[in-house]
């Protein structure tokens, strides 16, 4: 037991906290299976490595500010036939990140744009890339405020640092010229340096109206689309589908059972 305690102390001193915590149970398992010493060591260090990776992914996911955790495996490609699954799987290889290219998801609300952008963000985190998620209106308000307070350069670093910046819900509300100018500065600074995944319910022809300046909108699109993959999703909202299934939106409401007046079942 003294040797066991010393071994645990050494593991903790080396920063192998998970290995120290499971040392005794893994020794017992190794004894029962009569594992050779090298196999026991591989088992113990493998558990430590897995625990460290789990902590790493949990931390990087938290720092990315993802609104929820969803994967490509959870996306219902059958419900959205306009989405080319092969193209999405190709994007999941993250070649676009290595090329500092952009991904733009267009389509009406509820068709899975945010789900796909988050799922690609998770793939990027798993591959070791920095990721940051932000709603478009929060981003532009932040940049506009920083510009007014003469600290735009410092605040811009937050959005330039990650290799993948996810900008969600662009076009939900209109922006003024100051916000449009700040967005142009961000897009220009990231151009060919880092990837942007952007979701929008507005077609490109409407961006001038959204930004309140067609010239700035054209300049933004010129840089955003130069190296990009555009996925236009045409389909029904997942949220409305669930409401329809529950009889809460359109269609025939679910049949209500009527009890006979005598209280007996039909």
Give a brief rundown of this model:
The protein is an alpha/beta fold and 266 residues long. Helices cover 54% and strands 11% of the residues.
Detail the topology: elements first, then pairings:
Elements: H1 2-13, H2 17-33, H3 37-63, H4 85-91, H5 95-98, E1 102-106, H6 113-126, E2 131-135, H7 136-148, H8 152-160, E3 164-170, H9 177-190, E4 195-200, H10 207-211, H11 214-226, E5 228-232, H12 238-245
Parallel strand pairs: 1-4, 1-5, 2-3, 3-4
Organism: Thermaerobacter subterraneus DSM 13965
Family: Belongs to the IS21/IS1162 putative ATP-binding protein family.
Region (Disordered): 247-266
Describe this entry's structure for a reader.
- The protein is of the alpha/beta class.
- The chain folds into 2 domains: 2-56, no CATH class; 72-245, P-loop containing nucleotide triphosphate hydrolases (Rossmann fold, 3-Layer(aba) Sandwich).
- 54% of the residues lie in helices and 11% in strands.
- The chain has helices spanning 2-13, 17-33, 37-63, 85-91, 95-98, 113-126, 136-148, 152-160, 177-190, 207-211, 214-226, 238-245, and strands at 102-106, 131-135, 164-170, 195-200, 228-232.
- The longest helix is centred in the N-terminal third of the chain and has 27 residues, at 37-63.
- The radius of gyration is 26 Å and the shape is elongated.
- It starts with a helix and ends in a 21-residue tail after the last helix.
- Residues 252-266 have low confidence and may be disordered.
């Amino acid at each position: 037991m003294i040797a066991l305690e010393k071994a645990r102390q050494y593991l903790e001193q080396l920063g192998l906290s998970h290995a120290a915590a499971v040392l005794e149970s893994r020794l017992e398992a190794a004894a029962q299976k009569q594992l050779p010493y090298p196999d026991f060591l591989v088992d113990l260090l493998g558990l430590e490595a897995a625990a460290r990776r789990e902590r790493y992914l949990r931390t990087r996911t938290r720092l990315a500010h993802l609104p929820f955790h969803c994967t490509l495996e959870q996306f219902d490609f059958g419900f959205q036939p306009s989405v080319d699954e092969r193209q999405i799987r190709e994007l999941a290889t993250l070649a676009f990140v290595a090329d500092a290219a952009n991904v733009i998801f267009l389509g009406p609300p509820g068709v899975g744009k945010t789900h796909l952008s988050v799922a690609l963000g998770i793939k990027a985190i798993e591959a070791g890339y920095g990721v940051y998620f932000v709603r478009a209106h929060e981003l532009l308000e932040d940049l506009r405020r920083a510009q007014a307070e003469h600290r735009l350069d410092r605040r811009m670093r937050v959005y330039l640092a990650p290799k993948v910046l996810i900008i969600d819900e662009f076009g939900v509300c209109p922006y003024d010229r100051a916000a449009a100018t700040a967005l142009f500065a961000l897009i220009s600074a990231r151009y060919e340096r880092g990837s942007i995944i952007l979701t929008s319910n507005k077609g490109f022809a409407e961006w001038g109206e959204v930004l309140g300046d067609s010239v700035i909108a054209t300049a933004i699109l010129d840089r955003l689309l130069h190296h990009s993959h555009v996925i236009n999703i045409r389909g029904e909202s997942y949220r409305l589908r669930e409401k329809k299934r529950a009889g809460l939106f359109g269609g025939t409401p679910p049949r209500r059972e009527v009890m006979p007046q005598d209280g007996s079942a039909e």
